[in-house]
Write a structure and sequence with these properties.
The chain is mainly alpha-helical and 180 residues long. The chain is 57% helix and 6% strand. The chain has a two-stranded antiparallel sheet. A hairpin with a 6-residue loop joins strand 1 and strand 2. Helix 1 runs antiparallel to helix 2, helix 1 crosses helix 6 and helix 2 runs antiparallel to helix 5. The longest helix has 15 residues.
Length: 180
């Protein structure tokens, strides 16, 4: 099983946004919402317009854990949400299929992200990359693994560090600077 990685380089994040925006604004918004909330793809794809439009928080029951999750929607995300949902019915899925009324599914999200990643020149990208990218950059900015552990609902700081790729970064750096 292939392990996906966070997108560590902010220029690569911007390149992904550009490619996804050219594909369709929905794809760009899926990526943007994912990397700015850290929600699992299953929870993102289940969102309805009414779950986010005009709200200060995304409040969901996580599909994987069954636990209540409340996540603050910052001002920039609120602007994206307003723009993306302006002509959408509040009962419709946020990430609706371009063919019909159903939502896109995990496999379609994976295809969208992988096509963009290939164009940008990234590998080890999957639907979990969105969540991991959020975690990686949150940690880089705040260095607060305890808060990130709570956001992700992980059992320990070590699990969180490994999940976002920091443990591997530390190992790689130590090995690079080690010689006998």
């Amino acid at each position: 099983m292939k392990t996906v990685q966070p997108i560590r380089n902010k220029a690569d994040i911007e390149a992904m946004k550009e490619v996804l925006l050219k594909q369709h604004y929905r794809n760009y918004f899926l990526f943007t919402l994912g990397i700015n909330t850290g929600l699992r793809i299953s929870d993102l794809l289940a969102l309805k317009v009414s779950d986010v439009r005009g709200k200060s928080h995304i409040v969901i029951t996580e599909q994987k854990t069954g636990k209540l999750k409340r996540f603050r929607i910052n001002n920039e995300l609120q602007e994206h949400i307003s723009k993306f949902t302006i002509h959408k019915d509040k009962a419709s899925y946020l990430f609706q299929s371009l063919r019909g009324q159903d939502r896109i599914h995990r496999v379609q999200a994976w295809k969208i992200l992988n096509a963009a990643a290939k164009e940008v020149g990234l590998d080890e990208i999957g639907t979990h990359t969105l969540r991991k990218t959020f975690g990686y950059h949150f940690y880089q900015q705040y260095k607060d693994v305890a808060v990130l552990q709570q956001i992700f609902n992980h059992s320990s700081p070590a699990v969180t560090m490994r999940y976002i790729g920091i443990t591997q970064d530390i190992i790689d750096e130590k090995v690079d600077n080690f010689t006998l």
